[in-house]
Design a protein that fits this description.
Elements lengths: L1 E4 L12 E3 L2 H8 L5 E3 L2 H32 L3 E6 L6 E6 L1 H10 L15 E3 L1 E10 L2 E11 L5 H14 L9 H23 L1
Length: about 200
């Protein structure tokens, strides 16, 4: 089915563009959700008026989005997870979890707009983008620490600390000392042998 998009739709197109999609996708999702209309002569006239209103609305929303992006830039979220060697997680931190935590911090965002291609699976700090507006993307800091309280930096320092805490080994005996002890033992045994013979 040929449609005209009223809003940007990922992997389909941008608002105002024509696109050809599966009929079921158009009838069951795009059109009912207000993302598109069926492409007709009447629809072309309707979409022009819609695009003017949309442009005005987006211009107003952009100002608010820029303010929110600045505030989100100061935000640092912390998640605690079990981890193994080299800071790899047993599990992960997902886009959904990050979105929920951002909302819990008082930011009114669409949780689906957290742009995380794959879940986070490593201790340490990560920069995670959030799409607030077609022209505005915020970036938040997500830090993942282990349940033991270790960060990735602390794990890197651990081997050195463990090595320094081990007791210093006693120096080995020098060859001269060993030779002297052997000579003394031999002399003593010879003396004992002589006294037995007498």
């Amino acid at each position: 089915m040929e449609i005209i998009l009223k809003e940007d739709v990922e992997k389909v197109g941008k608002a105002g563009e024509k696109a050809r999609v599966a009929s079921g996708y158009a009838r069951n999702y795009l059109i009912p959700q207000g993302f598109a209309i069926k492409a007709t002569e009447q629809a072309l006239k309707e979409i022009e008026e819609h695009m003017k209103r949309r442009a005005k609305r987006l211009a107003e929303e952009k100002v608010d989005a820029e303010k929110m992006a600045e505030a989100l830039g100061q935000l640092k979220l912390e998640f605690t997870r079990k981890s193994g060697e080299e800071g790899k997680l047993f599990g992960s931190v997902t886009a959904s979890e990050i979105g929920k935590e951002v909302v819990a911090q008082g930011f009114n965002i669409d949780k689906r707009k957290v742009l995380l291609d794959v879940p986070l699976k490593q201790l340490g700090e990560h920069k995670v983008p959030i799409k607030l507006h077609p022209e505005v993307t915020a970036e938040i800091t997500v830090e993942i620490v282990s349940e033991e309280g270790d960060t990735i930096a602390a794990l890197a320092e651990k081997p050195a600390e463990e090595a320094s805490s081990e007791p210093a080994e006693t120096p080995e005996e020098t060859p001269e000392e060993t030779v002297e002890e052997t000579v003394e033992e031999t002399t003593a045994s010879e003396t004992d042998g002589e006294s037995e013979e007498e």
